[in-house]
UniProtKB/TrEMBL annotation:
It comes from the Bacteria. This is Ribosomal silencing factor RsfS. GO terms for molecular function: ribosomal large subunit binding. It comes from Lactobacillus hamsteri DSM 5661 = JCM 6256. NCBIfam families: rsfS_iojap_ybeB. Functions as a ribosomal silencing factor. Interacts with ribosomal protein uL14 (rplN), blocking formation of intersubunit bridge B8. Prevents association of the 30S and 50S ribosomal subunits and the formation of functional ribosomes, thus repressing translation.
Length: 115
């Protein structure tokens, strides 16, 4: 499965669980760590974990098992490492505090199509 297909199922899962202010950055040729970085916000800690679980479910449905989750049950920020796609899910306050988007300013923003 290529990185664009992984990005697509991650964005679908985020949309299905109503992630907010989702942004994706194409970092191919810029970062050696990942092809795409994604950031989204959740209205609550519960929604944050629901989004992460939805991404894991989509991964399994797509027979994709190359992933890791960083963060705990009490975290306000979860990182899903899907190989060439890294997804950061934040509560709104944590996203504002960490402001990770500034790290990816050199990347090209990916247009996200809403279903």
């Amino acid at each position: 499965m290529n990185s664009t297909e992984v990005l697509d199922f991650a964005l679908k899962a985020i949309s299905d669980r109503h992630g907010e202010d989702t942004e994706a950055y194409d970092m191919r040729g810029i970062s050696i760590l990942a092809d795409y970085y994604v950031v989204t916000s959740a209205g609550s800690n519960r929604q944050l974990h629901a989004i992460a679980n939805a991404i894991v479910e989509e991964a399994h449905e797509n027979n994709y098992t190359d992933y890791r989750i960083e963060g705990t049950r009490d975290s306000n920020w979860l990182l899903l490492d899907l190989g060439d796609v890294v997804v950061n899910i934040f509560t709104k306050d944590s996203r504002e505090f960490y402001n990770l988007e500034k790290l990816w300013a050199d990347g090209k923003r990916v247009e996200i199509k809403e279903d």
